[in-house]
Amino acid sequence: MNIVLLDPRQTQSELWSITAQRQIEHLHTHLAVQVGDSLKIGIRGGKRYLTQIVEISENIIKVKPLKEDHIPEKLPVTLIVALPRPKVLRRLIMDAVTLGVERLILIHSYRVDKSYWQTPFLQQLDHYVTLGLEQAGDTIAPKIELYKRFKPFVEDVLPTLISEQSPAFVAHPYTEEKMPFAIEHPCTVIIGPEGGFIPYEIDLLIKNGCQAVSLGNRIIRTETVIPYVLGRLFSTT
Amino acid sequence: MNIVLLDPRQTQSELWSITAQRQIEHLHTHLAVQVGDSLKIGIRGGKRYLTQIVEISENIIKVKPLKEDHIPEKLPVTLIVALPRPKVLRRLIMDAVTLGVERLILIHSYRVDKSYWQTPFLQQLDHYVTLGLEQAGDTIAPKIELYKRFKPFVEDVLPTLISEQSPAFVAHPYTEEKMPFAIEHPCTVIIGPEGGFIPYEIDLLIKNGCQAVSLGNRIIRTETVIPYVLGRLFSTT
Known about the structure:
Chain A is an alpha/beta fold and 237 residues long.
């Protein structure tokens, strides 16, 4: 937690109130905060401030805003990922948010276990978005969308995301073309499930405007490949 | 598990025997293997082969080697990381191995909790190395070293790793210089603990030949920053 994210409702009087138990515990345990300390606060969907702690009690910490602070920029990327198992999903959401992904789309695919769509985590995405924002020092949540049917998504939605200025790359081990690097334009990146997309899916993605590109001959887990690809693509930022 | 890693002892007769319960279970549960299926086998520290399954019983799967296969290349990088908490350590080891890090050094630092050095995981590193190799399809374990004292490491060991042809970069948020990208030479990368290196440590690293470089103004967790940095540095591979 590198900033404390507050709801706009919590920042409408002169002093702002931190009341979430999770945040208060973190401030006590990890930062041992005291009255007078400075603290970075983000307003969800809004600005970020440097503040000073003016009051600490058991269930509330009050701060006074001092000055506006910079919000980190987003990466101009739409990340499309075949829904992973629930444990991986949590990390994936947090990491995508921390790294600054603008838009995240979770899709079905042949090798995605149907039970994954039943996980309670899908109802708690917002919590993991908050954790990711607080890690990064960001305040703006990415758009997250879910598509439970592969073909309609690829045929009807995906083409609307692709243009000459904003290509789409699907990571695929069995191709000569390499994933680009150090790009300076927006793009869409598509990551398959453990075991990869099946040939029918790769073909459909290519038919609908995606470029299949390789990341070399190491097979990397979904949660690891996301920072790896983003670091590679946006290395000039 | 994208290859099954065997000990050289298991590959000395004409047929090779998979006997580890973990591997046999995986082959049954995830791949539903049958006699006649082909299977990728790596010999730890040696070559990688395409094999065919010739016998399946409860506690043993026997395979016949068909032909030699390619081992993925390593990244020419020495990764130095302040020892993270045990849960993060497991992922970090697996990811570093999967991504092809040649040499991994875990060090102490002011913000590393001393109790982390007592974790039983440090006695099980080899298990997580195996999982990382099996994920990547690699057979060669990286060198892993542990240094429990920061100053002697930085003053006596680190300088021997650095040369004009192989610089060392320490990720540090408060610097203008950016982490390079798309490099085509070996290097050393140093990642601090949660909360970062303290100023004394950064100064000592710089005094001993490191370049402090920034990764932008998002604060990224240790386990996420490693693939992010490696993707950025070695994007031409």
